[in-house]
Design goal:
Shape: globular
Structural class: alpha/beta
Strand content: 15-25%
Order of helices and strands: EEEHEEHEEEHHEHEHEHHEEEHHH
Strand order of the largest sheet: 4-1-9-10-11-12-13-14
Number of strands: 14
Helix content: 25-40%
Radius of gyration: 18 Å
Number of helices: 11
Largest sheet: 8 strands, mixed
Length: about 300
């Protein structure tokens, strides 16, 4: 098994469930509230860790109560904390999450706070772990200058860069040219490429955009359709596992973390996506983001049960 790094966000999730999502100007009486650990980077790292990966989290926190949510969670999961960064001036980031209790759809607002202040010097402090890692997984919830710096440093040490292009933000051609793999969802793929992805043909068209920038592998998550995979040799859509979803909030993060874990085990990209689909299917059957990530025993039991159907 090779080593991996997740460089990205931690936020405290403030999640409320209600009968429907409010329209502008509307106040809706909610039915449930929960506060807990989240952030795309942190969720993905937890998903990878619980799936069995040898993975390190690099994120930036405030020296506040919400920052302790991160360290306490990492302690409870036996995750290494030595590469956490701390701001003396900014608070820990937060996410406001609204979930429709009838459809499981969600709306999210991220306030990054300390995540917007990662410096070049702090990035340089990650050089040793990048030197030892085969993969580094990024998202777009920290200041982009930090992402661009980490990509250059990863390239120096032949560490393959995977970018989950969420939440959508414009990125440069130069940035993409050093990226090994991208994992947008269908909305992000459309925003970046201008292509409405709805079938294999349109996914191929979107993938061509990324490949012309230098990206080697394109994975597009398609919700109920599954996940599209494009390598230099072939492209296909891998169907999802059919389950009843109660909360889709962390599905994309579960997928990305599990994908990372599978790749570190030496699975090829197609087998890795099948594994990631299973982890995403398990995650949507639980409430929350970080707490919804399944462990390796749950994953293997689920896959075994599905093969017997």
């Amino acid at each position: 098994m090779s080593k991996a790094v997740v460089f990205g966000s931690f936020v405290v999730d403030l999640m409320a469930r209600s009968p429907h999502l409010p329209v502008p100007g509307e106040t809706v009486k909610g039915s449930y509230f929960k506060m807990g650990p989240g952030g795309k980077g942190f969720n993905q790292c937890v998903a990878a860790h619980k799936a069995g990966a040898d993975v390190v989290m690099v994120t930036k926190l405030g020296k506040d109560t919400f920052g302790k949510v991160a360290t306490d969670t990492m302690d409870s999961l036996n995750m290494p904390k030595e590469h956490l960064l701390f701001s003396d001036t900014e608070d820990t980031g937060i996410a406001l999450i609204l979930v429709d209790e009838n459809t499981a759809q969600n709306e999210i607002i991220i306030v990054p706070c300390a995540l917007n202040t990662i410096t070049d010097e702090e990035v340089k402090g990650t050089e040793k772990i990048l030197e030892d890692a085969e993969y580094v997984l990024l998202q777009l919830e920290v200041n982009q200058s930090a992402n661009e710096s980490i990509v250059k440093l990863a390239k120096k040490h032949n560490c393959k860069v995977i970018v989950n292009t969420a939440p959508y933000s414009p990125v440069s051609d130069e940035f993409l040219s050093d990226v090994y793999m991208v994992t947008p969802n269908e909305v992000e793929a459309r925003e970046i490429t201008g292509v409405e992805v709805k079938d294999l043909e349109s996914c191929d068209k979107a993938a061509k955009f990324f490949k012309e920038k230098g990206v080697e592998i394109v994975v597009i998550t398609l919700g109920e359709m599954g996940a599209y995979v494009c390598t230099n040799e072939q492209s296909t859509i891998i169907p999802p596992y059919k389950v009843k979803a109660v909360d889709t909030t962390g599905a994309g993060d579960a997928f990305n973390g599990a994908l990372l874990a599978a790749l570190t085990e030496g699975k090829d990209i197609f087998e890795a996506v099948k594994f990631a689909n299973a982890v995403a299917a398990l995650s949507v059957q639980k409430y929350g983001t970080t707490p919804s990530m399944p462990d390796r025993n749950e994953i293997e039991d689920f896959i075994l049960a599905q093969t017997k159907k």
